[in-house]
């Protein structure tokens, strides 16, 4: 029996895939697994039973990944599961920036009842007119799940698309339309493009990347779209650029006290992934990941431990060990199991940066004493036996 706790509401389409072996708890301290969307977890203390955190979504900057790794907690996300939802809103954002659709709708709503709205609209409409996307240059920074979709669809709107991502994955590169211009520096995007959209994670290396220096390289009247994270854009600098007219529109999915109410800012209340489809996709993927991890020890889409898939367990016990990626760990595990007269049927070890994961299937059953001995090995961070 596993206990799960939800820090945000998670779609029932996913939650319904948890069977009778899973029970909900309102007490995070006793949970085996926590499901979360954007709730901030940095200040949380984690209970001793916690084995996994599943982020039903892409960005994991709300979760203390290293602290979790050190406490033997595997953190998962759901790559690509909400990318289409975000892509569609980015396109809407570009259209809202191109013409003053929002201003026009507000004007109609505020119209006094005794006037001739049809006649007045024809006089007034020039105030809300704009430009078309077709023929404009779009720069996409970050060609992951979302960036690739945005880049490809923009080509169908007649835009000339520039893409920049020095770490692009092979999968993303395969998915990218051949007509996308490969920018080798981010400055090329800043200098050439009429619309610039960012789709990178919030990391130390990306925070504040759109600042006054970056903006100074951009075209007069550029449109910047940020559906990734507020911290990627220096809030003071973007406000100054909007006030000065250098940036025509800043479309963001992240309200901050600095940007709300600034002329030229189109601020959306973090709706990128808030579609039925994205919420269902994320929840289903998150639940599948935690079930496979808790029931079989397999890791898929972890952001702090290596992925590792050894299939379902055979008749004997399966030992899973989370540990630091340092020499002689496997030697110590196998020596200990040999001393305990355990025959190893299967063994896999995977590593990712500072952390590693070893799965060992034995023919027999593992005692609590063996688990304690494994736990006491230096650099071991978590041991579990799946019976
Ligand atoms: N508004 C919303 O509701 C949503 C926002 N997001 C945000 O969007 C971000 C991107 O999401 P996905 O595309 O799904 O993630 P992803 O991980 O598939 O793609 C991120 C891409 O950024 C690239 N990258 C990293 N550093 C870079 C740099 N300095 N310059 C250029 N490229 C760089 C990576 O190589 C990768 O290809 C997430 O991290 C999250 O913060 C994601 C989903 C929903
Ligand atoms: O997946 C992401 O990174 C998002 O920003 C979506 O966040 P949400 O699940 O809507 O709170």
From TrEMBL:
CDD domains in the record: ACT_3PGDH (cd04901), PGDH_like_3 (cd12174)
Keywords: NAD, Oxidoreductase
Pathway(s) where this gene product acts: Amino-acid biosynthesis; L-serine biosynthesis; L-serine from 3-phospho-D-glycerate: step 1/3
Membrane-spanning ranges: none
GO MF term set: NAD binding; phosphoglycerate dehydrogenase activity
Record Pfam families: 2-Hacid_dh (PF00389), 2-Hacid_dh_C (PF02826)
Catalytic activity as recorded in UniProt: (R)-2-hydroxyglutarate + NAD(+) = 2-oxoglutarate + NADH + H(+); (2R)-3-phosphoglycerate + NAD(+) = 3-phosphooxypyruvate + NADH + H(+)
Similarity comment: family membership: Belongs to the D-isomer specific 2-hydroxyacid dehydrogenase family.
Role according to the record: Catalyzes the reversible oxidation of 3-phospho-D-glycerate to 3-phosphonooxypyruvate, the first step of the phosphorylated L-serine biosynthesis pathway. Also catalyzes the reversible oxidation of 2-hydroxyglutarate to 2-oxoglutarate.
Protein name according to UniProt: D-3-phosphoglycerate dehydrogenase
Gene assigned in the entry: serA_1
